[in-house]
Here is the input.
Amino acid sequence: MVAKIKEKIINLLPYRSLRVRIFIIILTVGILCSVVMRYAIMNNYEERAVEQRSTTIQNQLMILANHLVSNNYMLNYNSQEQNYRTSKEVINAELELLSSLYEGRVMIINSNFKVVKDTYGISEGKIIISEEVIKCFQGVNTSHYDPEHGYIELTTPIMDTSATAENGEKNSGDAIVGIMLTSISAESIASTMEVLNRKANILETLLILGIVALAMILSIVLTRPFNRVIQAINEVKAGYSDELISVPDYDETVHIVDAFNQVLKRMKTLDDSRQEFVANVSHELKTPMASVKVLADALLAQEDVPAELYREFMEDIVSEIDRENQIITDLLALVKLEKKVQDLNIVSLNINDLTELILKRLRPLARKKDVEVVFESMRPVVAEVDEVKMTLIMTNLVENAIKYNKEHGWVKVTLDADHQYFTFEVSDSGLGIPEESLTHIYERFYRVDKSHSREIGGTGLGLAITKSAVLMHRGSITVTSIEGEGTSFLVKIPLTYIAQQTV
Ligand code: ADP
Here is the structure.
């Protein structure tokens, strides 16, 4: 369910190509970064420009505020005294100068929130109570930038230090006798911002073009190793090459290539063993045919062949045909065993009875070779097995023990079981198997001594058939042997058949 939903979401994504995805990711991240950077730089510049301008003017306003106090501008605003009038004019001139210098307007508000001076001359006598004004009367300088209308508004307290000293106030700071409400033009900042914006637009366009190019190059370069993997696999698929491939650029490509190489190696091994098997089969089938031809040619080459010689040659021809027949029968048995495990016909079987039956069948062969066959059963054994395949296993092992034995030798068959497995052991006093051959005896057509084996009718397929029948029962087969002394095969099979899990 979850997997289906996931698949649907993936299918909904516009592009499944890795290259397109890398391109989109780099492009998005690049554009986002350049836009954020542009806004950060522009905002920072604007803030700094406003702050610098505000601080410069604020300083001048503070100096002016001190002048106002020292000239009692606030206290005696309406006084007609000559001295005072002169100093008031001087200060008014200073205020006019400041406001024209900064293209602004200065208003002086007394403690009753009444405008006592306005450089524009339009608000004198009016009452102004705004948040900034109140805050300033509480001793806080305020500064506010209005980018939309292009001005900066500042409030500066006018403090009378002498009044504080007289009143003896301790911590409340200096007495605020009035405030200056100033608004100055921020046109210059706005126009600089406009120029900067224009430059930033050009730069940003160039940067985005660069990012598009970079995203295109990177998306091609980064996905190139995957293209190389596909190309190498296609070459193997088309049959141009069967070499192991190598694309060491990324860990990911190394893993993909490793997995592919392992599959390739397995295929090669299978192919090699198939070719070897076909070659072996053809060789084995050709040998008896060649003997038949030699015998028949010999008969044809002679005229007036005596009847006894005919008979003798014909007997040899029949024995070669028997041999050919035996090889074909064994091959068919092997092919059948290599089919599916489902072909097993599992039944509950008395193994003691089956062993007795097999030994009874093989006793004539043993007698012919003067080999004594002994059966030792430790306990009655009943197991779930395929009767035909179990017969094949036991017959092959006992037959080999008789065939590869010495004159007056012996074969001992022991049957035993525990709660899980039963064991079937066949020991003999025969020729034994050289140590270097022990690992090969289960291979198809492998014979320790080819000529001797052929003499006694071996095809080299018996143990291959036996092993594959044992494995089908999920059992095991082991061999111990001392050359010249004898051999012992031990087969171990579960009492209860364990069905193989189908994947
Ligand atoms: P074959 O049909 O030739 O007997 P097998 O596959 O049954 O083929 O055995 C393979 C080879 O293993 C035989 O050729 C023989 O040399 C050796 N071998 C098998 N069983 C015995 C045994 N009990 N004693 C000695 N050699 C054996």
Summary: The two ends are 21 Å apart (CA to CA).
